[in-house]
Design a protein that fits this description.
The chain is of the alpha/beta class and 360 residues long. It has helices at 3-15, 20-27, 31-43, 58-68, 88-105, 126-136, 141-144, 188-197, 230-234, 238-242, 262-271, 288-298, 310-320, 326-341, 351-359; strands at 18-19, 47-50, 53-56, 115-119, 145-147, 158-160, 166-169, 177-181, 203-206, 209-212, 216-221, 244-248.
Length: 360
């Protein structure tokens, strides 16, 4: 990629689909250079030309990010939405959500399914991440992004029949993903019911019945406290956090030039085709012992081992065989998980070098 390519791609990334004249004025390139380089970028799958309009493709985001930071040393999933993520840690979280959706869709286990907690202050792309996950899995944020502070009683889980009895469980519990925003502003009763979704189970007992939890739960929250332990900041106990993958969005490195592009990138995610959730090719594979050994090698202290559910990570690695061979699936699932929890200061400084060696 040369300087002209970068100028074209950065213009389209910052301003969206544009005509040739607008790009020429903004980039100061010669007309012949624009058309020659654009033809090459189109052949590489980085942009698309429709009539006289040039449009950036998700692969271009990946290519530009690779120039800012090296690509991860493990296989990635074939998901175009990952290219829209503003940082590697956001892309890793989306990858893990996709794996969690495969695991629930194909009922790999009755338990040890992850929830996701996206924790941070405003303007850290928290709700953006939840919405893109919904689009990625073929849903609609208008239905599947629930404002916890607007819920009351048991409405987060079930709907009443108007006479005080249960009418039905919420339909969104059967969708691939359910996002709950503003968790820190919810009532105590609603927060207690949200914790049911964080049980890690596919089914939970509910009023002498069984409630199916097919949706991957994503909880979006401002910190309950500005400092202190992870439990203090998340408003959840250690058992709930062990069943969750926690992204500390305040520690995600988002380039300054991307901070104002959330709405534009969200619109592009909406236009992308939803991913399929194929069945894992090795559903009975259990890499739990290997994962436990790799965690001991990558975590900076053995005191952190109780914070991580190795069986949960094995569930994700098994799910990754929907796309990848087993060894690659193991490295992909663990690499993405460790990318996320690295922001919690849980890992050795050289964990990336340790992971590929440990997983071969």
């Amino acid at each position: 990629m040369n300087d002209s390519d970068r100028r074209i791609l950065m213009w389209l990334m910052e301003r969206g689909p544009s005509g040739a004249q607008r790009i020429l004025r903004g980039t100061k390139l010669a007309s012949s250079t624009l058309y020659r380089r654009a033809a090459k970028l189109e052949a590489q799958g980085l942009l698309r030309r429709r009539d006289s309009i040039f449009e950036l493709l998700p692969a271009a985001e990946v290519a530009l990010r690779a120039e800012r930071e090296p690509p991860p040393p493990w296989p990635t999933l074939p998901i175009p939405h990952l290219g829209l993520a503003p940082s590697r840690v956001h892309a890793a979280t989306l990858s893990l959500i996709a794996l969690a959706a495969v695991a629930r869709r194909h009922r790999l286990r009755d338990e040890h399914h992850p929830a996701f907690l996206i924790l941070g202050q405003a303007l850290r792309w928290k709700s953006w991440l939840a919405k893109v996950a919904i689009y990625m899995l073929g849903g609609d944020p208008a239905r599947q992004l629930v404002q916890a502070n607007a819920e009351s009683g048991r409405s987060i889980l079930v709907r009443s029949d108007g006479r005080g009895g249960r009418s039905s469980e919420r339909e969104v519990l059967s969708e691939p993903v359910l996002a709950i925003d503003e968790f820190s502003r919810a009532s105590r009763e609603v927060r207690r019911l949200v914790e049911v979704l964080l049980s890690g189970r596919l089914e939970v007992p509910w009023e002498n019945e069984r409630l199916l939890l097919a949706a991957v739960p994503i909880v979006v929250s401002n910190p309950f406290k500005p400092s202190g332990t992870l439990e203090d900041r998340a408003g959840l106990d250690s058992a709930m956090l062990r069943r969750s993958i926690v992204l500390d969005a305040d520690q995600a490195e988002i380039p300054a030039e991307l901070l104002t592009q959330g709405a534009q990138r969200l619109e592009r995610a909406k236009r992308l085709e939803a991913i399929e959730l194929p069945p894992p090719k090795h559903p009975d594979w259990d890499p739990t012992p290997r994962i436990a050994a790799i965690l001991r090698d990558c975590l900076r202290s053995s005191d952190l081992l109780p914070r991580v559910d190795a069986v949960l990570l094995a569930t994700l690695a098994t799910a990754a065989t929907a796309w990848l061979p087993r060894e690659s699936a193991l490295t992909c699932a663990l690499g993405n998980y460790l990318t996320v929890v690295a922001r919690l200061d849980w890992l050795r400084p050289d964990w990336e070098e340790r992971l590929p060696r440990a997983s071969r």
